[in-house]
Amino acid sequence: MLLDLSVRRQAYIEDCEVCCRPLEISYVIEDEFVVNFSARPGIFSKSWGICRSDC
């Protein structure tokens, strides 16, 4: 996962690279450092479950 440090505050949905389930990613940048980061199940995901590679 790559974060765009030129964007000070961002939230978006990204598919998990392992199981393809949606993840809600959010972060805050201050002085080119990540000061807050969160990754949790996206709005369409019922639970974290176990990542699987059979997407």
Describe it for me?
This protein is mainly beta. The chain has a domain at 9-41. It is 0% helix and 45% strand. It has a three-stranded antiparallel sheet, with no helix packed on it. It is elongated, with a radius of gyration of 13 Å. The two termini are 18 Å apart. The mean pLDDT is 82.
What's the short version?
Helix content is about 0%, strand content about 45%. The protein has about 55 residues and is mainly β. The chain has a domain at about 10-40.
> What structural category do the secondary elements indicate?
mainly beta
Radius of gyration: 13 Å
How much helix, percentage-wise, in residues?
under 10%
Uncertain residue segments: none
Task: Please tag this protein with its features.
45% strand; single chain; mainly beta; 0% helix; 55 residues
